[in-house]
Amino acid sequence: MATAAQTKFIRPDGKDKVTGLGRYTADLTMTGMLHACFRYADHAHARIRSIDTAKARALPGVFYVMTDKDVPDVRYGPFVEDRTLFARDVVRYEGEVVAAVAATTPEIAREAAALIDVDYEPLPVVSDVEAALADGAPLVHEGWSGYSASGDVVREGNDASRSTIVKGDVDAALASADAVVKERYVADMSHAVPIEPHAAIAQWQGDRVTVWSSTQVPYIARSGVATTLEIPEGHVRIIVPHLGGGFGGKCEFHYEAHVAALARATDRPVRLVFSRSEEFFAPDHRREGQVIELETGVMNDGTLVARRGRLILDNGAYSADAPFFPQLAAMHAVGPYRIPNVSVDASLAYTNTTPSGSVRAPTAPQACWAVEQHMDSVAASIGMDPVELRRRNILKEGDTTATNQVLEPIGAAETLERAVELIGYGKALPEDEAIGVGCGWWPSFGGPSGAFVKLNGDGSGTIITGAQECGTGAVMALPILVAEELGMRPEDFSILAQDTDAGGWDAGASGSQTTFNNGRAVIEAAREVRAQLLELAEEELEASREDIELVEGAARVKGSPTKSVPITTLADKAQGDRLLLGKGSGSPPPSPDVDASGCTGRLGMETFAAPTFITHAVRVRVDRETGVCRVLEVAASHDCGVILNPVGAEGQVEGGVVMGIGMATLEGSIVGEDGRQRNPHLLDYKLQTSADAPPISIAFVDAPSPYGGPKGSKGTGEPPCVPTPGAIGNAIAQVTGARVHQLPMTPERVWAAAHGVDA
Amino acid sequence: MSHACTLQVNGISYPLELDAGRTLLTVLRGELGLTGAKEGCDDSECGACMVLVDGRPVNSCSYLALQADGREITTVEGLAKGGELHPLQAAFLDEGGVQCGFCTPGMLISAEALLRRNPNPSEDEVRLALGGNLCRCTGYQKIARAVLAAAPGANA
């Protein structure tokens, strides 16, 4: 039997996808279906004096125009309950929903939305994070102190969540350091940009509603609908058809309740499909801008002795899941290095812009971009090679982190060595080229997760899981794990997923957690079925279960290959009088001990459980005349534990690297002083194309993590986009001799830095 | 005002009455029920809506349906024949070139257009030909590899 890692992986949903027959949410239609369209705020910050919907309601084809007064009086939010489904009294960003229309066609719905008269009193717009935290700044939420919030969130005015990490004595260590480097970096807002825009369809049956949604987190969407419409959670069923990517942009509960409310009000199914432009400004999951100030003390032998950091992250107008970002960003401001004295202070500032939320490795690519460039500046300050500086300080087994977590066996140093070896660090290059290196880390997220495994009478199997496939293949690869437990083939199993009425609770396609947690769940479920099969086989083979193995589709007496019974026979026999059905969830691996007594605003990120380590080395060519930089080649080395599915893991690394190149060089939103995004479309927010993307070579450390997921695996989906921008920044600085302190590092900014002028 | 036209899609003729402003994409996805072509941006940037019109790849979101009257249209649904996957479709699966799958129909159409005019492309030629199709999942490496593997010249 091939082991999991040797199994050639063809995704079970692949044929549906290559033939074009697979349905995504926007591909579905229902009899009698109406189309929804939103009226968004006309100002980034304004008080609503009145809303007149009469003209919109009078338009032929319009069934309903909905505003705040049509839905229950509920505030919601995962950490801070600061928002409502529809704007109430005040609009706080351009994508805030003021009203929703249901009409017979999308065109009529759009026309009606434009006919709604809203009278506003403009309020001062807060669009800059530092201005937001300045004394006397206008409050984005005047009533912030009255909002319900998780008790661990430290809040004050426009600071929606503050976190500190303190270890040792930074002042003393900086005073005694041989060199001190102080720098400031600014990262612009960017976006997840899944190629499928958001879509949702709701249909009621009696007092129960089914919502087909392009969500990464169906169970969280279910809770959101139930909470905001004040109906029992059991009355809400979320089904996700094929999901066209997410990258965090489709995490959290978004618009499922709006379409459900419209469907209830009209007694019709209602569908909402976003345009690309809405995808940029409306959903509360863009990648937040950051201001990052770093000060590091180093000895002449390269020993890092102190790191001070001050970070301000942009929360946007409402708090999605971003309140845990300051602590996470603070961990990244330290990075995967031994630093005995640390003081990092991170805040999350409300502004009148699109709300932030988890986008693939939230906070990390921006913070790491700053830290890894800073590391090269620190190396330069003592005349040391930047790889050598990393080599002397990178975390190893037994080291303690900034929160005094003692590290298990890890492969951080190996990733550094293998990445620089793969790219040929130190080789002679043309004068317009350079190699830059960046290191990073990322935690695994252990948590509950549900799955069932059943064998059918014909010997085939079904995996019923709460996990959500977002494209990575993590759910599609679950049969590999189940088949290995049962001595069957992956293709013997079908997968029933993405239906909250079927599977057990799962956190969804977020936090690189699917294989880590649901992999464990399906293995546990399969082991229950295994025990049931062995019990049946004992009777058939007249042998005790300790002597029976499940291999090649049969139960077989060990050492006596002729004494065997096919699993199909056992399944057929079982169908008559008992079930072959297993369930799994189980406890996540133990969380490592930390001592974060010096920290405030603790929201779980003081612990980096089963951390992944990453080094990317990039070769970049920079045109000094134009500032255009081109990434020519990338070497990526990852310690993400044991690799269970090589094709899937490579796909994550390659995709993450290219997303990181986009972030580094092109992807950033331009926000006007009026709080509006100036480039909310793909014409002016450019993604990398196949012609831009370089060849990528990969080296996995492929060693088991003692506190990892199944077979010693660790999270794999998010880490690949973490260190790429920093590595590219370092290469640019080597070619031009000037560091770019703003992300994205556009040609204008590269040119300006190289020529010593402000961009 | 609507106009009579006949769209020839994947070898089947569809007589239709269409308003002049309708895009080919909305007619394919609406009237004809062919939802393989996707709308990812509506301004010819992402390529998810790509179909072949007389063998040339076009972004159907930005192509009027009436312009296609009398022309031969191929959508992703027309690539597999007699229950057999097209070599490009099989190669995309073998090489791991499919993740979320939303860009896949447009990618396959672009690749098919390339291989029809150049059965033995270099990797650079493949990457240039697919330059109008955005993928956010794969980083393009496995897609490029799939197209090279499916090229008739590579297997000759």
In terms of topology, how is this protein built?
The complex is a heterodimer of chains A (759) and B (156).
Chain A: H1 14-18, E1 34-40, E2 46-52, H2 54-58, E3 62-66, E4 90-91, E5 97-103, H3 106-115, E6 117-122, H4 129-133, E7 159-167, H5 170-176, E8 179-187, E9 199-205, E10 208-213, H6 218-229, E11 236-239, H7 256-266, E12 270-273, H8 276-281, E13 290-298, E14 304-316, H9 325-334, E15 341-350, H10 364-381, H11 386-393, H12 412-423, E16 433-442, E17 451-455, E18 461-465, H13 478-486, E19 493-496, H14 514-541, E20 548-551, E21 554-557, E22 560-566, H15 567-577, E23 581-584, E24 612-622, E25 629-639, H16 646-665, E26 696-700, H17 724-736, E27 742-743, H18 747-754
Parallel strand pairs in A: 1-12, 8-27, 10-11, 14-15, 18-19, 25-26
Antiparallel strand pairs in A: 1-5, 2-4, 2-6, 3-5, 7-15, 8-13, 9-10, 9-12, 13-14, 16-24, 17-18, 17-23, 20-21, 21-22, 24-25
Chain B: E1 2-9, E2 12-19, H1 24-29, E3 50-53, E4 56-59, E5 72-74, H2 87-95, H3 104-117, H4 123-129, H5 141-150, H6 152-155
Helix pairs in contact in B: 2-5
CATH superfamily descriptor of the largest domain in chain B = Beta-grasp domain
Number of strands of chain B: 5
Largest sheet descriptor of chain B = 5 strands, mixed
Structural class of chain A: alpha+beta
Structural shape of chain A? globular
Using a beta-carbon cutoff below 8 angstroms, give the protein chain pair with the largest interface and the number of residues from each chain: A-B, 56 and 52 residues
Helices and strands of chain B, in order, run as EEHEEEHHHHH
As residue ranges, the low-confidence spans of chain B are: none
